[in-house]
Amino acid sequence: MPQEEAVFSEESYKIIGAAFSVFNYLGWGLPEKDYQKALVEEFFALGLSAKKEVYIPLQYKTANIGRYFADFVINDRILVEIKVVPKLSYDHAKQVLTYLRIAKLKLGILVYFTKEGIKYRRILNSQVDY
Q1: Cα separation of 92 and 129, whole Å?
Q2: How far apart are CA 99 and CA 79, in angstroms?
Q3: Which residues, 6+ apart, have CB-to-CB distance to 14 below 8 Å?
Q4: Residue 17: which H helix or E strand, with range?
Q5: Which residues pair with 68 in a beta bridge?
Q6: How far apart are CA 107 and CA 86, in angstroms?
Q7: DSSP state letter for 75
Q8: Mean pLDDT score of the chain, rounded to an integer?
Q9: Per-residue pLDDT tens for 36-75?
Q10: What distance in Å separates the CA atoms of residue 25 and residue 32, rounded to the nearest whole number?
């Protein structure tokens, strides 16, 4: 049986590689905003279109009832959220899935800048086809 191809695998590889490059250069312990700025530069160098601090409105019928901000949306189809925390958390994954559902995007990548290095999780929104 052929192995199923990962969703947006080429872009995912570049995004995760960018995070490793930034970590290898800057190390651990900086504020999240500094990693965001460095990632913008790295995404651009890799030929990725990166929108930073993307506004995601929450609608109920015709009313705007809330708002969220994703760290990045890459190539208008992959949401990237970064965290500077010691370990992965279910709450962070839940946050990314919420953003994906509201924004109607298929893939989110949650990137952790930890003392031990980069950790990441790909999160799929099953409610969206690609």
Answers
A1: 23
A2: 8
A3: 43, 46, 47, 48
A4: helix 9-26
A5: 56
A6: 24
A7: T
A8: 94
A9: 999 999 999 999 999 999 999 999 999 999 999 999 999 9
A10: 15
Q: Are 88 and 109 within 8 A, CB to CB?
A: no
Name the phi and psi angles at 106, rounded to 5. Answer: -85, -40
Domains defined for the chain, CATH in brackets: 9-124 (3.40.1350.10)
Cα gap 79→97, rounded to integer Å: 10
Say which residue the tokens 């960018």 belong to: 18
Q: Residue 45 CB: number of other CB atoms within 10 A?
A: 11
- Residue 3: pLDDT band with limits 50, 70, 90: very low
Rounded to an integer, what distance in angstroms lies between the CA atom of residue 99 and that of residue 102? 5
* Residue of 113, 94, 115 lying closest to 38 (CA atoms): 113
Compute the distance between CA of residue 20 and CA of residue 118 in angstroms, rounded to an integer: 6
Decide: 13 and 75 in contact? Cβ < 8 Å: no
Residue 110 β-bridge partners: 81, 121
Put simply, whether the predicted model's pTM sits higher than 0.90 gets the answer yes
Distance of CA 42 to the CA centre of its chain: 14
Cβ neighbours of residue 88 closer than 8 Å, sequence gap 6 or more: 110, 112, 119, 121
